[in-house]
Amino acid sequence: MENVITNNKNAAVAKATIPVIEIKDLHLSFGKNEVLKGVNLTVKKGENLVILGKSGSGKSITIKCIVGLIQVDKGEINVFGTDITKLDNTELNKTRVRIGFLFQNAALYDSMSVRDNLGFVLKRHSVELSNNEVEEQIKDILESVGLIEAIDKMPSELSGGMRKRIGLARTLILKPEIILYDEPTTGLDTITSREISELVVEIQKKYKTTSIIITHDMACAKFTGNRLMIIRDGVIYAEGTYDELEKSDDEWVRSFFL
């Protein structure tokens, strides 16, 4: 009996340590411009991984590849243990439902109220829900991002920070296991950026999400990231915690922290 218990524990530990996302030797070119030249990375369950890099280094392109928005030239993208580069559209869409993507501009429908923006996504993927259930879930998720009072507002009536929060609410409403953040604090003032960073961490804790955060904002990187990677010349150039990379012997790596 003791051996059975021990084996079960070992199996549970092994399962917990399997990466939720694992990218192997990822290559991508646009014409003669080779953007990704062999990117390798893993993200563990429940981890917030921050990816840093200069503009045009391929940070945002990498996470777009993870949801199949861009097709790669070579390499594997294993999500939940399956290489998504080999999936057909039907199988890929099933995986996408488990992944939330927060775009830089929040990508709200300008002609719809906040309620309708959230309801549209929910009804599209959860057709069995009643109108009352949809309304309840909309209100619950708005409470989570602290914007229940904005339920009847139009996107044009929202500040930049509010738009980010509503965009995040729309991402969260399908209860994704993975969230990909593309520059979540870009264009925001210091105080609002801090609030968004705090919300990212709150979501990680409350919903047990696994996330990749693309950012230029070092305050955001420090606050949200359990681990950081820096991409350079199409490959992962450095990896570690914020403190480790800040004290790196590599002058180029340290330049991000000045």
TrEMBL record:
InterPro entries: AAA+_ATPase, ABC_transporter-like_ATP-bd, ABC_transporter-like_CS, P-loop_NTPase. Residues 21-258 form the ABC transporter domain. Keywords: ATP-binding, Nucleotide-binding, Transport. SUPFAM superfamilies: P-loop containing nucleoside triphosphate hydrolases (SSF52540). The keyword ATP-binding applies. Coiled coil: none annotated. It comes from the Bacteria. One of its GO terms (molecular function) is ATP hydrolysis activity. PANTHER family: INTERMEMBRANE PHOSPHOLIPID TRANSPORT SYSTEM ATP-BINDING PROTEIN MLAF (PTHR43023:SF6), PROTEIN TRIGALACTOSYLDIACYLGLYCEROL 3, CHLOROPLASTIC (PTHR43023). This is Phospholipid/cholesterol/gamma-HCH transport system ATP-binding protein.
